[in-house]
Amino acid sequence: MPAVRRIFNRLPEPLRFLINKHRELIRFAVVGGTTFLIDNGVWYALKLTVLQDKVVTAKAIAVLVAVISSYVLSREWSFHTRGGRERHHEAALFFVVSGIGIGVNLAPLYVSRHMIDLHSEVADFISGSVIGMLLATAVKFWAMRKFVFPEADARPSVRRLRVVAEEGEREVA
Predict the structure, then answer these.
(1) pLDDT per residue over 98-114, tens digit each?
(2) Around 138, how many Cα atoms within 13 Å sit in the side-chain half-sphere?
(3) What are phi and psi of 165, to 5 degrees?
(4) From 18's CA, which of 50, 101, 118, 123 has a CA 20 to 30 Å away?
């Protein structure tokens, strides 16, 4: 039994119930945390080297790299049992929603830099990585479930397939 499953089984039943009920949201948050690290790693690498005077451009590139990572992680882990669309339609919608998310993500940084005229690392981080990321994450989670991966249980999970193959027709959640 994997370590995560052993830890999960030791949790109190009410907590296990909540984790199971909100499993998709928790996975989406983990993917978000991972892409947050990718986004900020790329952003700071660019803004401290080749794009020192183009902070918003550096952020846009970083967000694009994070979005590509997010698609792979979202499809294969966060929303691995959801679907309802052909893969190319799903990918196109994912990138449209992510494009909207990029705009939502960049808006606070743009306002901070070009309208309020704040030019500090703290202001950049708060507007670009905290406010922008939180707003974009909320919009994207709603849109992913509503438009990109609209049908729950459209694809069986790998665990369910493995158990069904090993034990006949019995399905395990």
Answers:
(1) 889 889 988 999 999 99
(2) 6
(3) -65, -40
(4) 101
pTM of the model: 0.66
Q: Are 4 and 77 in contact (CB under 8 A)?
A: no
DSSP 26-73: HHHHHHHHHHHHHHHHHHHHHHTTTTTT-HHHHHHHHHHHHHHHHHHH
Q: Which helix (H) or strand (E) holds 173?
A: none
pLDDT in tens, 51-60: 999 998 998 8
C-alpha 108/C-alpha 127 separation (Å) is 5
Q: In whole angstroms, what is the distance from residue 60 CA to residue 12 CA?
A: 43
What's the CA gap between 101 and 139, in Å, rounded?
7
